[in-house]
Amino acid sequence: MVKLSNLLRGRDLLSLRHFTPDEIILILDTADNLKKLQKRGEKHQYLSGKTLGMIFQKSSTRTRVSFEVGIYQLGGQALFLSSSDIQLGRGETVADTARVLSRYVDGIMIRTFAQSDVEQLAHHAGIPVINGLTDLLHPCQILADLQTIREYKGRLAGLKLAYVGDGNNIAHSLLFGCAKTGINITVASPEGYRPSPEIVSAAREAALATGAVIEVVTDPVEAVAKADVVVTDVWASMGQEAEQAQRAGLFPPYQVNEQLVKHASDDFIFLHCLPAHRGEEVTAGIIDGPRSVVWDEAENRLHVQKAVMALLM
Ligand code: CP
Ligand code: NVA
Questions:
Q1: Which fold has domain 16-137+300-312?
Q2: Fewer CB within 10 Å, N- or C-terminus of the chain?
Q3: Nearest bound ligand to CA 241?
Q4: How do residues 110-158 score in pLDDT, each as one tens digit?
Q5: Of all atoms in ligand 1, which is nearest to the CA of residue 273?
Q6: How far is residue 131's CA from residue 299's CA, in Å, rounded to a whole number?
Q7: Region of residue 250 (phi > 0: left; psi between -120 and 50: alpha; otherwise: beta)
């Protein structure tokens, strides 16, 4: 087996904000390589004997399965730790959970509500912590998106990406992912549902190094105009179930449908992190249509997270 770079060994993945453009490209290149090895059936057991603890305080299909299968393929094993089963769910502190797990496992992946919990976990853990989604961010998803975009477009810098919909965790991590890789990004969201101004300005600062243009608008047509990549996500995220009806009344102008994508580049690709609600944020014609790459995008969660684990743990 080719030796992997030690550049990221021991690091946490809490936000793409903390990674340089070169470090992100290293993760994507490693992911492409691991994908090739897996397709050819060649051994790549970089984490032989290692264990990943996976804490879930929210539901998951892709994140759970791709991390679990990913570490098996790397020669290690995973422990699924539902918060309803471990003492964290009964009030044991995040700090104590971090200290104890650090004595047993080699890395922790956590999906939870508050970004501050992930940061606290990382602060008290002596092992790498990977953010598997918070209310604020979803860095692993955006790494898979970048891998997918590069596979289809052959490059990242200079492309135009349109994100249409709620200024949520996906929008936030996309802002960082695009800023760091030189993709020009326009986010179109209704007033009151725009991405966090603090994240937008941090992304703009990161974009100074790559020349990426970061825009936030209200008009979805303006965002999608000549876009190479069109992305959307659910209108109500996990934890926002009570707001679902109110949001459903407000977001229909932001649906990605056949009319809207007429403004995109002819060879645009459509991405969605999934799960999707056909007929809400996207029509069946688009997500199941010829420009959609959502199944490759979902598959790449496996490859890119294997790269993250193999480089960090
Ligand atoms: N995209 C994503 O993170 O999916 P899951 O919620 O199924 O993990
Ligand atoms: N924004 C969505 C993403 C799900 C993967 C949520 O947080 O529910």
A1: Rossmann fold (3.40.50)
A2: N
A3: 2
A4: 999 999 999 999 999 999 999 999 999 999 999 999 999 999 999 999 9
A5: 1
A6: 18
A7: alpha
